Amino acid sequence: MITFENITKTYGGKTHVQALKGISLTINDGEIFGIIGKSGAGKSTLVRCINMLEKPTSGKVIIDDKELTAMSDSQLRAERKNIGMIFQHFNLLSSRTVFDNIAFPLELIGASKEVIASKVESLLELVGLTDRQYNYPSQLSGGQKQRVGIARALASDPKILLCDEATSALDPQTTQSILELLKDINKRLGITIVIITHEMAVIKAICDRVAVIEGGVIKEQGRVIDIFASPTSETMKEFVKSVVNMELPQGIRKLGVSDQPAPDRDMLVRFRFKGLVTNEPLVVNIARKFNLDVSVLYGNIDYIQDVPFGYLIVVIMGDMEAQAKAFAYIKTQPIESEVLGYVPRTH
Amino acid sequence: MSPELIKLMIQGIEETLFMVSVSTIIAAIIGIPLGVTLVITGKGHILENRFINQIFSTIVNIIRSIPFIILMVAIIPLTRLIAGTSIGTTAACVPLTIVAIPFLSRLVETSIRDVDFGLVEAAEAMGASPLQIIRKVLLPEALPTIINNITVLIVNLIGASAMAGAIGGGGLGDIAIRYGYQRFQADVMLATIIILVIGVNLIQGIGDFASHKKNKK
């Protein structure tokens, strides 16, 4: 477990920038924890406080009852072997082959040649680069470089893996494959993964929990699925919007949405899914039971951590009273719903 | 050219090679660690130490600001102390080495500084000690440029060693001045120039090749 207790970080000098303003956070063992923020929010500083690449100005960093903020340099070096890290620009040694890059942390602890060979071989297999072991980093693609970075970070059998914008320099397909690899590592080896990113898609793809940071302060944190369903802070709302659009599409708004029902208007309803809430065919039931027409205008259904999640905007067409009855029925169903308004009937 | 002159030329080549090799080797032994020190004691680096950084930097600047021909004469007492004499090829090695050390250290400083700090950070994150970072990250990563730095140093030292002839240092430069200039023997002058041009090109070629061979970027 990683615990931050009221961490602050101030950069000295004339400008005196306070990068972190009192951060308290707990990251559980074995989870994938995401920290999202815009550039300059302080997320990179925060993740560097975990392995003390940045020393906090005040506050405590505690990993499994050990207070890193109170350690000497040599104690810290020993502790860092339990914390792997991967970087946006990979930071591989250009003068070493793939094999030797992965062997690097093992060399640092003075491992024997045999131990290094067997360990590196199994890591090469894990990241799928066995056939590239004699290549130099300059001969690899971005995704392959990051795989080397991951293998290198895992060489000392860490309990924690820190990812600092690890996919930000990669294209979407490669990002996907790296994220899958990270998830696989988390499942197979039970390693706690902390991911720093500015992309909500990364959070959505693999994180269990997420915290959003802005101006050196944690604005909001919680389970990813909950945050996606109902973000409370403005910052998180913006990030959620970047991957899940819950606004009424422009085209519908142009029709002229009124908030009053009228005989010549149809009801716009938004359903919000979070998890498998019903086995009943809701839309079909409305149509059958109340003799109404239901048309889907806009939908966005996604899976977050294998849980369906999303929005569906439908227009319920027909008799005004039947519309009201239908909505009363919908309210009895275990699904969130709201009337967005009433649009003029077009046919 | 007479056989004596040819013999003289060969001796000159030997003397130049001797002066350049001795000063290059000593400069490498002292100048490379000094260059590394200038970087790692700098602001925000692994062994930040303003005091040490300032001292070394100032010494390097002082020596670098004195023209070689003046330095050579100015340090004659020191040369006598180290080499036992102030004239001759061995004596010329002292001022040559003294200029070579700060020259190389500044070049190496730039090469080491060019190593992406992300690599240092990554090594630190893996629990590497400062010494491990120097030996396993900074020096191997900067090696191709350090080879280039040494090539530049050798070429510069060949030039400087010609000036050492002025205090009786011997070598090709000495021969060119004494025979080519003072005795108007144009053939000696021409021969010296040809030897120097070939020598410098050869060294530059070897340096470029070695640097390229080590560069995996």
UniProtKB/TrEMBL annotation, chain A:
An annotated Gene Ontology molecular function: ATP binding
Keywords, in A-Z order: Amino-acid transport, ATP-binding, Cell membrane, Membrane, Nucleotide-binding, Translocase, Transport
CDD domains xref list: ABC_MetN_methionine_transporter
Gene3D superfamilies xref list: 3.30.70.260, P-loop containing nucleotide triphosphate hydrolases
Domain ABC transporter: residue ranges: 2-240
Domain of life of the organism encoding this protein: Bacteria
Protein name per its UniProtKB record: Methionine ABC transporter ATP-binding protein
Origin species: Megasphaera hominis
InterPro entries from the UniProt entry: AAA+_ATPase (IPR003593), ABC_transporter-like_ATP-bd (IPR003439), ABC_transporter-like_CS (IPR017871), ACT-like_dom_sf (IPR045865), MetN_ABC (IPR041701), MetN_ABC_transporter-like (IPR050086), NIL_domain (IPR018449), P-loop_NTPase (IPR027417)
SMART domains for this protein: AAA, NIL
Record Pfam families: ABC_tran, NIL
Keyword Translocase set for record: yes
Region forming the signal peptide: none
UniProtKB/TrEMBL annotation, chain B:
UniProt keyword list: Cell membrane, Membrane, Transmembrane, Transmembrane helix, Transport
The ABC transmembrane type-1 domain, residue ranges: 13-207
Localization per Swiss-Prot or TrEMBL: Cell membrane
Pfam families, per database record: BPD_transp_1 (PF00528)
Main location group: membrane
Transmembrane segments: 17-40, 52-76, 82-104, 146-168, 188-207
CDD domains xref list: TM_PBP2 (cd06261)
PROSITE patterns, per the entry: ABC_TM1
Keyword Transmembrane helix set for record: yes
Membrane topology: Multi-pass membrane protein
NCBIfam families referenced in this protein's UniProt entry, alphabetically: PRK10782.1
Family in the record: Belongs to the binding-protein-dependent transport system permease family.
Protein name: ABC transporter permease
